Amino acid sequence: MLNVSLRQLDVFVQIALHGSVRAAAERLHLTQPAASMALAEMERQLDAPVFDRERGRLRLNARGRELLPLAQELLERHAEFGRRATGKTVALAGELRIGASNTVGNYRVGELLGDFVRAHPQVAIRLRVGNTDDIATAVLDHSLDVGCVEGPVTHPLLEVRPWRDDTLLVCASPEHPLAKKRGLKPEHFAGERWILREHGSATRVTTERALAQLPPGETVMELDQIEAIKQAVAAGLGIACLPQVAVSDALATGKLIALKTPFLDLHRKLSMLLHREKYRGAALEVFLQSVT
Predict the structure, then answer these.
(1) Of 154, 158, 196, 249, which sits with the fewest C-beta atoms within 10 Å of its C-beta?
(2) Neighbours of 138 (CB within 10 A)
(3) Residue 242: how many CB atoms within 10 A of its CB?
(4) Distance of alpha carbon 83 from alpha carbon 89, whole angstroms
(5) Which PANTHER family does the entry mention (predicted)?
(6) Residues 6+ apart with CB under 8 A from 172
(7) Model confidence pLDDT, tens digit, residues 214-272
(8) In this predicted structure, what is the pLDDT of residue 145?
(9) Terminal-to-terminal C-alpha distance of the chain
């Protein structure tokens, strides 16, 4: 009969999330030998390793990937049992690992987290910002509890909940010839120099959808940060589709101009991503209620 302890499960989960025994030991306030022993004892009881060892890093193998969500659920249910067992009203605590794509993480993080953090200050928030593909992958491998992304995501294991509407604008420097032209039409964009986000970005997907409605142009640069694109556009290096929420400051100061393009569909839906098979503890459920 297995006798895997909560400490061993905790060490296993933290190594899976952070990639090393040292990092797990630091998170759990253990010595590194103690964390190593806990993992070794769990693997001994399972009679199988749960990690592949690669150049000092530990990466989940197939068995580990299967067991990770179960270990996370056991730890969360144990914490929930302790919270409810007192029969008293106990402040929500624990940790939430939240992923946000770049537009959300850099420009709408207050809207995403503000109400929850103010109401539940004892819950630790670990926020990861990346592009939509990166966040979706992290939700799928259980390294994130929930994600908030800009782009369309389709996967049988992911639940997608609409959150907010979002709009992109075609932006140029004030000196750009198109900024001085009235009554813009699609043909005016022939041969234009475009600055795009990287592949995997939802902004890239929306931009390519818009470019398909225009005459051919030239991609002169790919950048993985919205602020870098703003600076490049302001310097006259090209034009770009950028989230309205990200350029409001530059438009107000006249650093950028938003071109009027009613013939382009630049609307999109921001969405919450959840793993369909993940246990949703109290903190996650309350967070989801706060963002509805």
Answers:
(1) 154
(2) 18
(3) 27
(4) 8
(5) HTH-TYPE TRANSCRIPTIONAL REGULATOR, LYSR FAMILY TRANSCRIPTIONAL REGULATOR
(6) 178, 179, 233, 239, 256, 257, 259
(7) 999 999 999 999 999 999 999 999 999 999 999 999 999 999 999 999 999 999 999 99
(8) 96
(9) 44
Tokens of 173: 């420097």
Average pLDDT score over the chain: 94
Return the ∠ at Cα 234 (arms to 99 and 240), rounded to 5°.
Answer: 55
Residue 112 CB neighbour total at 10 angstroms: 22
What would you report as the CA-atom Rg of the chain, rounded to the nearest whole angstrom? Answer: 23
Q: Do the beta carbons of residue 286 and residue 120 sit within 8 Å? A: yes
pLDDT at 90 over 80: no
Q: Tell me what percent of the residues of the chain surpass a pLDDT of 90.
A: 89
Give backbone dihedrals phi and psi of 234, rounded to 5 degrees, phi first.
Answer: -60, -30
Q: Which of 187, 188, 205 is nearest to 196 (CA)?
A: 205
Asked if residues 132 and 151 have their Cβ atoms less than 8 Å apart, the reply is: yes
Whether pTM > 0.90 for this model: the answer is: no
User: Which residue type sits at 179?
Assistant: A
Indicate whether 151 pLDDT > 90. Answer: no
Please determine, for residue 55, whether its predicted confidence score (pLDDT) is greater than 80: no
Tokens of 252: 């107000």
